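Sample intake sheet
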Amino acid sequence: MSPDVFEELKWRGMVYDYVEGVQDLLAREKVTIYNGFDATADSLHIGHMVPLIALARLQRFGHHPIALAGGGTTMIGDPSGKATERKLITRQEVEANVDSIKKQLAHFLDFDVKANPARVMNNADWLLELNLVNFLRDIGKHFTINAMINKESVKTRLEREEGLSFTEFSYMLMQSYDFLHLYQHEGCKLQTGGSDQWGNITAGAELIRRAIGGSAFGMVYPLITKADGSKFGKTESGSVWLSAERTSPYRFHQFWLNTDDRDVVPYL
């Protein structure tokens, strides 16, 4: 195992892009890192395995992982990588999904190690308490429409006939606020996620710089995609779940067994 976790992740093909300074940060100190997981279903899927394995590896190198359940942001819906708007689900459904996801995270992360135990947090704990006027004054003023519509997740949807609702358009502000909240209250300096989250992650780092003069970083992983190039998602068809109730162990095994030869190395 390399003494440099960043080089280890790069060697394994797990680094897609990053904010300059991430490697020095990880080498210089034991960093609090968070990765968000939405709660649109009661199970994670194989698309989450890359960030989960990366978080586990970062934890083994002594860093402090936070798995952030999107109990609040899931009620808005992330437009990243989505051709159409998600169907909104109820708060009760979201809360039940968060509880199920927490149990699955224990298969990847160590919550009992004394030095740097993993933690699960839920952004509903702070997002659902926000005052709209204060949020727009204190957070919204740091975002320009010009910059937001140039983010790939927004630009792609605006080019489609269906367009993008204000609900989903505001998602970037919510995720950015998560990063600011965790930076201020948990000392979290690094956010990770899939490559489709790059725009949201860099927006959060920029919010921290503009709002409080802080220095925050981001790193994204390559997406696990289907044969047609589309990503695996909870609201997409053909998902392969990490729950035996949703995807049988046989089907899970068959998925990997039937992987196209060209995809074997990227999956490894």
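Comment: The radius of gyration is 18 Å. Strands lie at 17-18, 32-38, 64-70, 119-122, 188-194, 217-221.
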